[in-house]
Amino acid sequence: MTTLNELHNKLEEHLSQQSKNWDSFIYAQEKGFYQGFDAIQIDGCRSTEKRFEQYNIQKYLSENKSALDIGSNCGFFSLYVSKFLESITGIEINPYLTSIASDTQEFLEIDNANFVSSKFEKFSTDKKFDIIFSFANDSTIDSNTDFNFEEYITKIIHLLSDNGLLIFESQAIDIMIPQKFEPKMEIIKQFFTILENRNVKSEYPLNVPERLFLILKKK
């Protein structure tokens, strides 16, 4: 049975390989992990447990619902919320982060999560999801995003079940330059009913203390 120290060594090796071999921008490289996870004593730039508390979304989750996490990073948030869901799939383009997620999943013996190393644009499935998480992933600063915002939302609509929910956290720049988000909001209103519209705390980057947070229901 893997010990916590052995798991940490595995995860650190994935980070090491990422630094050597991943040519794109590495989020939170200065700290190692973008996501923190108390369950395995990992300190990251954004605590998974604190984010879940701030998001206040448990009332939307249930054990008969499936979820998709776009840009799942090292999978810690997906793994945390899995206990409230029937199943969750995490999509992450960075294979080193996907390996971190899979190793952590195995260590925690979680059997209702699945992680896929893929660009969201290329992700394909016949499955429809009850909930889709999009946490600051509608565009990225690493030039790995091909979709414009309308294309991004259109694919989400296709992947959502009838009356499905999109739980959306904005990009940092959408708070720094609010007018940049206005065209996005107009697109959102075409496809979704806004159930909640509020700000949540953000610890990363340090110059962006809050992000816009939306709970959206497919029309």
List descriptors.
219 residues; alpha/beta; Rossmann fold; seven-stranded mixed sheet; two-stranded parallel ribbon; 26% strand; globular
Task: Tell me briefly what this model is.
Helix content is 33%, strand content 26%. The protein is α/β, with parallel strands linked by helices and 219 residues long.
Straight-line distance between termini: 47 Å
Query: Major sheet: order of its strands?
Result: 5-4-3-6-7-9-8
What is the strand tally? 9
Low-confidence runs of at least 5 consecutive residues? none
Radius of gyration (Å): 17 Å
Order of helices and strands: HEEHEHEHEEHEHHEE
Per CATH, the architecture is 3-Layer(aba) Sandwich
Helix content: 25-40%
Classified in CATH, the superfamily is: Vaccinia Virus protein VP39
Q: What do we call the CATH topology?
A: Rossmann fold
Tell me about this structure.
The longest helix is centred in the N-terminal third of the chain and has 18 residues, at 4-21. The chain has a seven-stranded mixed β-sheet. The protein has a two-stranded parallel sheet with strand order 1-2. It is α/β, with parallel strands linked by helices and 219 residues long. The chain has helices spanning 4-21, 48-55, 76-81, 95-108, 149-159, 172-176, 182-191; strands at residues 35-36, 46-47, 66-70, 87-92, 113-117, 129-135, 160-169, 192-201, 210-218. It is 33% helix and 26% strand. It is globular. It is built from seven helices and nine strands; from the N terminus they run αββαβαβαββαβααββ.
